[in-house]
Write a structure and sequence with these properties.
By secondary structure, the protein is of the alpha/beta class. It is 29% helix and 26% strand. Helix 1 crosses helix 2 (31-47).
């Protein structure tokens, strides 16, 4: 059966026209007001030549316009390609060419992007996010996958970004599975939408889920400054915060400095590993520990999440969503017994049909529908999933496997270390040694001998960093993942 996300959302608008839908810049929009903006965008896109199979690039911050254009594109049988305006002009132009967009709507104030797109032959228009976009002439569309809803460019933390195709059926299944799994989300909750909607986590969980389930969402174009985010959460009555670790670190710091503590019912976190110290900091300063989850763009994106505070297993990313099958294999492809660490494989209806390439769609899954995530993980005898590391990040020191997060957790415990990341560096004797990149606190860098002694008390000898580099900040993606490929080039 064909899944039409636009029809499900617009039906919600018809059923509850005067109920709260979107909180934007201090004001609640009703479902009626939102549907009127969707209708206006649909007319303008149709007049511009948008047709079934067309892809529309969106270089916009979180806003009602972003979600109106998205649903409008779906209503016309097309799809959207959300992009990060901070990725650089040439990167954005190449991305538009890569997936064959019919046109682009960009926010005013992205330097140089509008003329660059037009010079490259890509119809584009710049608009303020508080208005619907003017019409423009689109070029002939590039057909997408049947039922295609969105194309995401992955963050590229371990290599070149890929264009991931997700269908309407993928997204609908993921939303349904997430709502069923996370019992902490109720019908009267207000969802925080501050993670970037050009990222799969923000798009599906913070934006699409509330639209499909009829929950009010609080749209914020950016989470900095954190004091403003906390004030918006207070004024709008946010009860469920969906976040990533770096956002939680900023929010807890702001509360520690005296900002208002929000009245939250649940904190859900994904996007990167959650340090145990940050979980405890959230418990102390935000009033709740964190329901940690795990996902990847190719899975729409949620794979697993802790179902609620009564069934939370700290240190795990919870239970897989209904419909997902998981298996742990060794490097030879043999299935490992429960609690063994190995490569995580997935199968389920939320998985992407493949990657978009200029010559067509590249199927990412095996013939049996299994997808290798590239993550090292384990599943215990109760089904809870623990993600240990990216397979490409594992450091092999003298034949021993070293998982970076184990070392990073210890380094962050030092009172003079604000942040830490480790990678492997070639070594003629041991194969690799551990190279640590540290952000120092106000007292300045820690002497190498002191840091080595600190680690020696907490780690085996082969896990102690041998090379130390101090940096002003760690390079991170838009949702806070450390870009280790950039660290390796320093």
């Amino acid at each position: 059966m064909e899944v039409r996300l636009d029809r499900l959302i617009l039906e919600r608008c018809r059923k509850e026209p005067e109920e709260r839908c979107l909180w934007w810049r201090g004001t609640w929009w009703s479902w009626r007001a939102y549907s009127e903006l969707v209708h206006c965008c649909s007319l303008r896109l149709a007049d511009s030549g948008f047709r079934p199979g067309s892809r529309l690039a969106l270089v916009l911050p979180n806003s009602p316009l972003f979600w109106a254009l998205t649903v409008a594109a779906w209503s016309l049988g097309g799809s959207v390609v959300p992009m990060n305006g901070q990725n650089g002009v040439q990167t954005l132009v190449r991305a538009c060419h890569h997936v064959g967009v019919a046109g682009a709507v960009i926010a005013e104030g992205v330097p140089g992007l509008l003329p660059a797109l037009r010079t490259a032959g890509i119809p584009a228009v710049a608009t303020a996010v508080d208005r619907d976009q003017p019409s423009f002439s689109l070029r002939p569309f590039t057909p997408g996958e049947e039922g295609e809803a969105v194309v995401f460019f992955t963050s590229g933390t371990t290599g070149e970004p890929k264009a991931v195709c997700l269908t309407a059926a993928n997204l609908a299944d993921n939303v349904e599975g997430a709502v069923e799994r996370v019992r902490a989300i109720g019908d009267d909750d207000v969802i925080l939408n501050v993670l970037p909607d050009f990222h799969a986590l923000g798009f599906t969980v913070c934006g699409l889920l509330p639209l499909l389930r009829g929950l009010p969402q609080v749209l914020l174009a950016a989470f900095m400054p954190c004091e403003a985010t906390l004030e918006a959460m207070r004024r709008s009555g946010v009860s469920v915060a969906v976040a990533v670790p770096i956002l939680l670190a900023y929010l807890t710091s702001a509360v520690a400095r005296g900002s208002h503590r929000p009245a939250l019912k649940a904190i859900i976190c994904g996007g990167d590993h959650l340090p145990s110290s940050l979980d405890e900091r959230c418990r102390r300063l935000l009033g709740l520990p964190v329901l940690e989850g795990y996902g990847l763009t190719e899975a729409s994106p949620v794979v697993a999440v802790n179902p609620g505070y009564d069934r939370r297993k700290a240190g795990t990313v919870g239970l897989p969503l209904k419909g997902f099958e998981t298996v742990i294999k060794d490097q030879r492809g043999l299935v490992l017994p429960p609690s063994s660490e190995g490569r995580l494989w997935l199968r389920g209806p939320s998985l992407s049909p493949g990657y978009v390439r200029p010559e067509g769609l590249y199927r990412a899954s095996s013939a049996e529908g299994w997808f290798e995530t590239g993550d090292i993980a384990s599943v215990d005898d109760t089904g809870y999933l623990t993600v240990v590391s990216r397979a490409s990040d594992v450091i092999i020191v003298g034949g021993f496997n070293v998982y970076p997060r184990d070392v990073e957790e210890v380094l962050r415990q030092h009172p003079s270390v604000v942040d830490a990341a480790v990678v492997g560096a070639p070594n003629s004797l041991s194969g690799e040694v551990i190279r640590a990149y540290l952000v120092a606190g106000p007292a300045g860098p820690v002497p190498s001998r002191e840091l080595a002694a600190f680690c020696r008390e907490r780690l085996p000898h082969f896990m102690i960093p041998r090379l130390i580099h101090y940096v002003p900040r760690l390079p991170r993606s838009a949702i806070g993942e450390v870009l280790k490929r950039e660290l390796r080039s320093i």
